Amino acid sequence: MTPPSRRQVLQWLSGSALSLGASSLAAGTSTRPVPGRLPLPLVQSSSFPTAPIPGATQPLAPGERLAPRLPRLQIPDLPEVHRCEYAVSGVLEAAHVILLVPSAQIRPDHAESLARTAVQKTFAARSSLSEVAVSVYRTEGYMGFGGPAPLLTASVPKTRLSDFLQDFGRAGKVYDRAWINPDAAPSAQRSPSRELERAPVFVGTPAGLTRQRVLQLAAQLSGGVHGGLFFHGNPLRPNAALSFDDAPHPIYAPLLLDTLRRAGVNATFFCIGRNARAYPYYVRDMVGQGHEIGNHTFHHVRLTELPADTVQDELEQCNAVLTGITGRPVKYFRPPGGRYSPETLMIARSLGLTTAFWTDDPADFDNPGQSVLEDRLSRNLRPGGIVLLHDNVLESLRVLPRFVEYASQRRVKLDTVADLAELA
Ligand SMILES: [Zn+2]
To answer: How far is the CA of 304 from the centre of ligand 1 (A)?
Structure first.
């Protein structure tokens, strides 16, 4: 395709530079639609206000929200159970049981034994569950999903319950859907970013910001990866990408993977390294089902406030975890909060990563309601578009089948970010 002329780009800058996407509607900012072309979440300056995750009770992006609270199960006669929640996708049900063990009581095989009992009791408490995930944490320092890593985790599909009970933590046996934390002591934490992705935010000079906007708008006209950035796929091809940030999460991963499998579409999961490390079997499931894995940093940090060596460490650690699980190089990276700078771009490129943004953010993290979410997704579907969702939002999961059906009727094929980029 012919690249856009300078005049075209300038027209776009003057006509649509201040237009924002559906996410901005949700955030309460003004939207000025551009005739004939859907607005983009245009790259913003560093003064773009941050928006904390609504109702977040833990510092790591997505994980635990006040609304809607998941239903809980009572697990009898097991005082170590901190909480047991479950969710229903409409087809499957999955639960996550969290146990806390005081350091003084941690001894060989004890956590494994507790996990076996907890999983068995959870299945007994609700016979309709298809999968139970278990995480055992040290009581001291426990801060929920975003705090110090668990001592162990496991995923137990109902069909694998007897394998789990017979093999997990037994001498000479291996249960393949489990992770034992190899660290003797809790590893160092970094302060995670609590802001939502609403628009890409460039931290740099005014001239640098203008260049980013030109690149973004040029990408809207011609698509493709330019200068290590992927803003938009080819608008002349009937393809769009589906992407999920902050993966993986227990409860949601099996439900989402089942939903995507039934819908017959592949997606890109931008994984937080620490989540992937503690729940590697979900990442394996994603790759096994044909999905793509992208880098979303190791601790979900705001990169633009960190020194270069820390940024490099965040991206490298995440790449190492993901490659260690999948055996494949990681090609795409999405910065938490959409915040990036010339330095983060340079470091990402030096690691072979393309920085990928989005065209449509329906703000699923606001839990706007299924009909609103479905409407935002449908209204913004575009050839070459990149849809941003989060992997642990039930509303997203539940509207996905109808959105995929809608895309199919519009003859837009949903696929991974890499597949969309290759078409450009
Ligand atoms: Zn994120």
So the answer is: 14
Name residues whose C-beta falls within 8 Å of residue 154's C-beta, 6 or more positions apart in sequence.
115, 119, 133, 134, 164, 168, 175, 177, 178, 179
Look at residue 37 and give its three-state secondary structure. strand
CATH topology of domain 6-55+194-423: TIM Barrel (3.20.20)
Annotated catalytic, 285?
no
Give the three-class secondary structure for 389.
strand
3-class DSSP assignment, residue 420: helix
Catalytic: which of 96, 232, 245, 258? 245
SS3 sequence, 163-222? HHHHHCCCCCCCCCCEEECCCCCCCCCCCCCCECCCCCEECCCHHHHHHHHHHHHHHHHH
Residues 6+ apart with CB under 8 A from 75: 81, 84, 97, 118, 121, 122, 125
Q: Which of 291, 390, 391, 415 is catalytic?
A: 390
pLDDT digits (tens, 9 = 90+) for 337-363: 999 999 999 999 999 999 999 999 998
Tokens of 138: 């040290």
- Does residue 232 carry a catalytic annotation? no
How far CA 149 is from CA of 65, 283, 308, in Å, comes to 19, 17, 25
pLDDT digits (tens, 9 = 90+) for 356-399: 999 999 988 888 889 999 999 999 999 999 999 999 889 999 99
Determine the Cα angle at 152 with ends 147 and 158, to 5°: 115
Which sequence spans correspond to the domains of the chain?
Answer: 6-55+194-423, 81-180
- Residue 137: CB partners within 8 Å, gap ≥ 6? 82, 98, 99, 100, 101, 148, 150, 151
